[in-house]
Amino acid sequence: MTAYDRRDLGLLLLRLGTGGVLAAHGTQKLFGWFGGHGIEGTGQFMESVGYAPGKASATAAGLAETGGGTLLALGLATPAAGAAAAGAMAGAAAVHTPNGFFNQSGGYEYAATLGLTAAGLAVTGPGRISLDHVLGHAVNRGWMIPAAFAAAAAGTALVVGARAKRLRQAKEGEQDPLFDEDYME
User: Fold this and answer.
1) Distance CA 96, CA 89 (A)
2) Which ranges does the record mark as transmembrane (predicted)?
3) What is the rounded end-to-end Cα distance, in angstroms, of the chain?
4) Could you tell me which residues come within 8 angstroms of residue 157 by beta carbon, excluding any fewer than 6 positions away?
């Protein structure tokens, strides 16, 4: 079959939309584009939410989002691209989880949606309207899917785990007030 079918067009739309959004977010972190804060500002933010060192964390997140998003949009190295983007979004979701699910309350809804879509594309594949297809799927082999997810999961677990440990250690020694000040009045 030489004509593109609905699946190919649907995958193209998903890749362009998800990849474009991820790449834009990454360039905010890396270059300060689209109203972002660049490495300096993002690094300070990353440090404030427990990702240390901040600049290295901002660079890693920015590269995973920009690189993963761009590759997803192009349909190139789709397993690695989707896994990298999903890992970055898992790290973002960890920051937003205390706020609940919904984005309007600062929750992890948005990060989860981007991450799950990127992961789904990595598993499903890019479709025939992609650079992977043009290149004969040289960097989109079946074995690459579990390998990419294993590597991304291991890296994400280490980074998010280290963040959780830092946050626990920072909280040690702090004591909650014994009485609510409003109650004392």
Assistant:
1) 10
2) 71-95, 143-162
3) 77
4) none
The pTM is what? Answer: 0.87
pLDDT, one tens digit per residue, over 7-47 is: 999 999 999 999 999 999 999 999 999 999 999 999 999 99
Token pair 């309350």 is found at 105
b/e 14-53 (16+ beta carbons within 10 angstroms → b):
bbeebbebbbebbbbbbeeeeebebbeebbebbbebbbee
How far, in Å, are 5, 67, 104, 171 from residue 111 at the CA level?
Answer: 30, 17, 13, 26
For the segment 85-107, what is each residue's pLDDT rounded down to a tens digit?
999 999 999 999 999 999 999 99
CA dist., res. 63 & res. 39, Å (int): 11
- d(Cα 139, Cα 123) in Å, to the nearest integer? 13
Whether 90 contacts 158, CB under 8 Å = no
> How many other CB atoms are found less than 10 A from the CB of residue 5?
10
Residue 34: helix, strand or coil by DSSP?
helix
Among positive and negative, which fits the CA dihedral 50, 54, 58, 61?
Answer: negative
